[in-house]
Amino acid sequence: MNRILYPAQSRYLENLNKESDPLLEEMETFANQNNIPILSKDSAKFLELLINMVKPKRVLELGTAIAYSSIRIARNLKKKSVVHTIEKSADNIPIAKENIAKSGFQDKIIIYEGNAVEIMPTLAKKYDFIFLDADKADYKRLFDYSIILLKKGGVIFIDNLLWHGYTAASKVPSDMKLSTKIIREFNKGFVTQPKLKTTVLPVGDGIGIGVKE
Ligand SMILES: C[S@@+](CC[C@H](N)C(=O)[O-])C[C@H]1O[C@@H](n2cnc3c(N)ncnc32)[C@H](O)[C@@H]1O
After folding, report:
1. Which helix (H) or strand (E) holds 205?
2. Is 3 a residue whose pLDDT tops 70?
3. Number of other residues whose CB lies within 10 A of the CB of residue 212
4. Which of 5, 120, 150, 185 has the fewest CB atoms within 10 Å, counting from its CB?
């Protein structure tokens, strides 16, 4: 199981929402060839739309990978807005930096190198928008820090809450059991978090959106 949407509808929507950006296409191919998980195209478009609606001044991203989503966020930010993005992988950081340089958004994207679990408690200033896309085992802790770092009225955007369909499946393969259990527990905590208004949408791999009250 790895689809939330049937292939025909998925293909139709992809064609309908077609876009062409050589750098993003190059990054999509690189991620695909090197097994680096990045936001699906539909989730990325949705994220970009939300950035345009919320118009955040300060965005925090947890999980940069090769900076695909960082660039998609940055290209939709207003003039003085920035995205701070945290990445722990020594393999991914240089690739992310190279892509950011190619994108021309060096002044908008600031990479924090290290584990978000350690970096987040050192961040003093709050954010208008937080995108959580890190290791699932870290989700709960990063989410708890995010609630603290999110401004009132701020938006949190979380990927993978349908976890390739497994969170809703009755049968889960043994190698996916632990991660599925983690995401299922996370989802229960997410939709009942008293400081947020939330929903989980069947976009991409399942997107959780919360607004801080
Ligand atoms: C799913 S990828 C991020 C994809 C990226 N947001 C995109 O859509 O283009 C997850 C990334 O988060 C990083 N990561 C996972 N847990 C982390 C943590 N606790 N702190 C910092 N980085 C983390 C991984 O090394 C990986 O590069």
Report:
1. none
2. no
3. 19
4. 185
